[in-house]
Amino acid sequence: MSRTDRASRVIAAPPATVYGALLDRESLEAWLPPDGMRGRVERWDPRPGGGFRMVLTYLDPVDSPGKTSDATDVVDVRFAELVPPERVVQRAVFEADDPSYAGTMTMTWHLASAGDRTMVTVTATDVPPGIDQAIHEAGIASSLANLASYVEAADRPSDNGHRGRRTTSA
């Protein structure tokens, strides 16, 4: 039986801004990794039939063993459908020796205008059984929170009156 995981969030930015962050390599590297991870895109082709390869590295792999190695999850993603600024459908395959992570998971990012905001709903279908549902949904929610922070900062006027991303030091 296939499993579906989902999460949603209202983001204080218009759908076009949110959609842009879904299809920009630098943006994706900044916001997609959930809390406790960092990401690096190794391949990038933002068109239907294209996709990307992302290496997600656990900042503390002791409590969160990776799917690909002790400290990493590597995922190959194909863009199955791009409907600006409404929907991005991705087909994701994890690199893993463990068969419980095998298969193609579909991630649908649905963007619905809510005035000057966007309701973003992420639905993951055919989730591999090795991925814990509660942890996965928390990870999606974390990515959505990161996305909100990223695009809301980009859409907010800065101190000098120009729009731009805030930067924070680590």
Task: Work out the helicity level.
Answer: 10-25%
Compute the number of strand runs: 7
Q: Please tell me the overall pLDDT.
A: 90
Gyration radius (Cα, Å) is 16 Å
Low-confidence blocks of residues: 159-170
* Count of discrete alpha- or pi-helical segments spanning 4 or more residues: 3
Q: Could you walk me through the main structural features you see in this protein, from its secondary elements to its overall organization?
A:
A hairpin with a 2-residue loop joins strand 6 and strand 7. This protein has a seven-stranded antiparallel sheet with strand order 1-7-6-5-4-3-2. The termini are far apart. It has three helices and seven strands; from the N terminus they run βααββββββα. It has helices at residues 15-22, 25-31, 133-155; strands at residues 4-11, 37-45, 51-58, 72-83, 87-95, 105-114, 117-125.
